[in-house]
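Figure caption, in words: inputs first, then the predicted bound structure.
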Amino acid sequence: MNTNTVILVIGANGQLGSVLTTSLQEKYGVDQVIASDLRKREGFNGVFEVVDATDINRIHEVVTQYKVTQIYHLAAILSAKGEENPLQTWDINMKTLFNVLEVSRLHEIEKVFFPSSIAVFGEGANLDNTPNNSYLDPSTVYGISKAAGENWAQYYYTKYGLDVRSIRYPGVIGYQSMPGGGTTDYAVDIFHKAVLKEEFNCFLKEDTMLPMIFMEDAIRATIELMEAPKEDISLRTSYNIAGISFSPAQVVEEIRKLYPEFKVNYAPDFRQEIAASWPKSIDDTVARNDWGWKANFDLKGIAEIMMAKLKEKYKNGSKNLETLLL
Ligand code: AKB
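Bound structure (2-amino-3-ketobutyric acid present):
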């Protein structure tokens, strides 16, 4: 391992960012990882800087101060929240990406991670087992910003040799943190409600199949891609990765094995339309061939771990998100 590696995580308070930061600290050492977000996280163990990624000077400052060598840029407004204010979503998602790409180019950052999403696909793609090189006609401004971002990542690689790497995440399911503003968020929320013995109002139809991935698999994919030899990376836009695909009805079936009384009301809203424009399942052949990607967790395994871990957390007496973070 390169002991000079210093990683800046932008969006370190988010669903994925919070867990990824801990994994990177475990791998590279607590002092080698600079966590950053709009607000300082109380009780955070490690180096934390308040960074608004729309402010390029602030990113320059932190990169210079800590002699950063890698950046993981995880800040973005997600699919459902993004529809509330499309132009602002576009501005924030693109400005933060451009700032990261520019700072990385100017500081000759070794590697950059840019998360894309299954939201880049739309009805022009085959939504069953969607191939990596499908036609992209995203239905949300978030999806449009990710599709554009993938092309900018490739542009910076081709034009400036910047080593940007990217994954198209499915919905991420974890017990460590809460998602916010996404269309796949129901798949985390539903486990919280089950363990708290509350009713769940599902904003998707019961048979809506979507690609999902367990947090442990999502983190491992990210680190494996970032550690893969440069010559193995054939895609400079973004890699499809598959975990599992399921519908709300299938999660409910798993949950009822442990909580037979669990009640669900289906009240589809605007998010149903977004979900209907996304793949039902993903073909990740290119990631498998290039850097050996393979998911480990199926729905049964995910459901068992989610319910056990959340039960433990809630037993310890808190419904507060901050204490749910690792
Ligand atoms: C969302 O639902 O917006 C995200 C995603 C699939 O990118 N979780």
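Residues 321-326 have pLDDT under 50 and may be disordered.
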